[in-house]
Write a structure and sequence with these properties.
Structural class: alpha/beta
Number of helices: 13
Low-confidence stretches: none
Distance between the termini: 60 Å
Oligomer: single chain
Helix content: 25-40%
Order of helices and strands: HHEHHEHEHEHEHEEEHHHEHEEEH
Shape: globular
Number of strands: 12
Length: about 350
C-alpha cells in the first residue's frame, strides 16, 4: 500500500497553482495560425532597431572562443558597469537578464514560510520567482490610476516578509513611483526586508521625478536590478545586472548559477556600453513615439502616462477580443485577460500600423 506522499508524483504540488510565464507570440506563429503575412510584433518590449554598433562584431569574435568557459565573474563587464555608475565591482553582479537577478536576490533572502510582496498587476515573473524560493507571494492591487500602491505594500508587511519587488517603471502599466513614495516605503519598512527596485525600463523615463535606484544603494536593504534587454537592444543575449551593497552582492553570488553570463552575452554588453550615445539617440526616438501614440489613444480611453517603451490600455473585459482582433490585422500585442493590453512602441511605421487598427477597434 502506497502512502499519500508516494501518490503525489515527482514534482512539487505547489507548482499546480503557479502560472506559466507567457512570452509574446511571434510573427511566425501568428502568420502560420491566422494566415497574416508580415505580422508586426509589439508584444515583448523589444527595441526595433537591431544591435547597437560594434555588438555584432564583438559577438562574432566571442563565438570563436565558445570552446572555453566564460569568465564566471564577468570582470570586464562588471568593471565597465561599475565605472559607468561610479561604483566598485563588488557592488555589481551580472546574470541571465534582470529576471534572473530578481530570482537570485529572492533566493538569497527568502525561503519556506517567508513572504514576498509585489504589486499586481506587475511583472508576471514575480509569482513564479516567489514560488521557486518556497515563499508565499503577496499581491498588492494597483491603485485606480494603474500605479503601485506603496501604502498598500506597507500594510501587507508582516514578520514573515523578506522582500518587496518594486517594478518602476511598472510592467505592464508603465507608471513609476516617485522619490517621495520610495522614501516613505524605506522609512517604514523593517531593516530586514529587502527592497528590490526593478528598473528594467529606467532608460526610457523622461519624468524628472522618476526614482533613480542608484541614489539608494548605499542602504543595506536596497538592490537595483537593470537589464541590457530593453534600451540596449540585447534581449536575445540574456544579460542583466544588479547593484547593491558589497555584502548583499556577495551573498547573492553564492546562489548564482555558475557561468550564467555567457561569453557572447558579456561581449555584447561590453560593446553596447561603448555605444551609449547611439543608445540614447534610439531611446529618444522611442520616447517621442510613445508620447505620440499615447496622445492618440487617449481620445478613446484613459491610457496612463508611461515612462517605459510601451503603453497600457486598460480594456478590462474587452482585452481578449481586442488582442485577437489586432492579431487578425497583423499586429501582435500582449493581452492580459480581463485586465488590459500592453503595446510596445516600435518604429514610426509600426506604430502607425497599430494606431490604424486600434482606431477601428476602440
Amino acid at each position: 500500500m502506497t502512502s499519500p506522499e508516494q501518490n503525489r508524483g515527482v514534482t512539487r504540488p505547489d507548482l499546480a497553482g503557479v502560472p506559466a510565464y507567457k512570452p509574446g507570440r511571434t510573427p511566425e506563429n501568428v502568420s502560420k495560425e491566422l494566415g497574416v503575412p508580415h505580422a508586426i510584433k509589439l508584444a515583448s518590449n523589444e527595441m526595433p532597431f537591431g544591435p547597437l554598433p560594434g555588438v555584432t562584431e564583438a559577438v562574432v569574435e566571442a563565438v570563436t572562443r565558445l570552446h572555453r568557459y566564460p569568465d564566471m565573474f564577468a570582470v570586464a563587464l562588471r568593471a565597465k558597469i561599475a565605472a559607468r555608475h561610479g561604483l566598485t565591482q563588488d557592488h555589481v553582479l551580472t546574470g541571465c537578464g534582470s529576471v534572473a537577478l530578481c530570482e537570485i536576490l529572492a533566493l538569497a533572502t527568502a525561503t519556506h514560510g517567508d513572504e514576498i510582496i509585489f504589486g499586481w498587476r506587475s511583472f508576471e515573473a514575480y509569482p513564479i520567482i516567489t514560488t521557486r524560493t518556497g515563499a508565499d507571494p503577496i499581491r498588492v492591487p494597483l491603485t485606480s490610476d494603474n500605479r503601485l500602491d506603496v501604502n498598500g505594500m506597507l500594510a501587507a508587511v508582516t514578520p514573515r516578509t523578506r522582500l518587496i519587488f518594486v517594478c518602476t517603471p511598472n510592467n505592464p502599466t508603465g507608471t513609476s513611483i516617485t522619490r517621495d513614495e520610495l522614501e516613505h516605503l524605506l522609512s517604514e519598512v523593517p531593516d530586514n526586508v529587502l527592497i528590490v527596485l526593478d528598473e528594467a525600463y529606467r532608460e526610457f523615463s523622461t519624468d524628472p521625478d522618476t526614482v533613480d535606484g542608484l541614489d539608494y544603494i548605499d542602504r543595506p536593504n536596497v538592490a537595483v536590478v537593470r537589464t541590457f534587454s530593453k534600451a540596449w537592444g540585447l534581449a536575445g543575449a540574456r544579460i542583466g545586472y544588479a547593484m547593491a551593497s558589497s555584502q548583499l552582492i556577495e551573498a547573492a553570488g553564492k546562489v548564482l548559477t555558475p557561468f550564467s553570463s555567457t561569453l557572447p552575452a558579456q561581449a555584447a554588453a561590453v560593446a553596447a556600453l561603448d555605444a551609449e550615445e547611439e543608445m540614447r539617440r534610439r531611446v529618444n526616438i522611442i520616447t517621442s513615439e510613445r508620447e505620440r501614440v499615447h496622445e492618440t489613444l487617449t481620445a478613446y480611453l484613459p491610457v496612463p502616462a508611461s515612462q517605459a517603451n510601451f503603453v497600457w490600455l486598460p480594456l478590462g473585459d474587452r482585452t481578449t477580443e481586442f488582442g485577437h482582433n489586432c492579431e487578425r490585422q497583423g499586429i501582435i500585442v500582449r493581452a492580459f485577460d480581463g485586465e488590459g493590453v500592453r503595446v510596445t512602441i516600435g518604429t514610426p511605421h509600426e506604430n502607425d500600423a497599430f494606431l490604424k487598427v486600434a482606431e477601428k477597434l476602440l
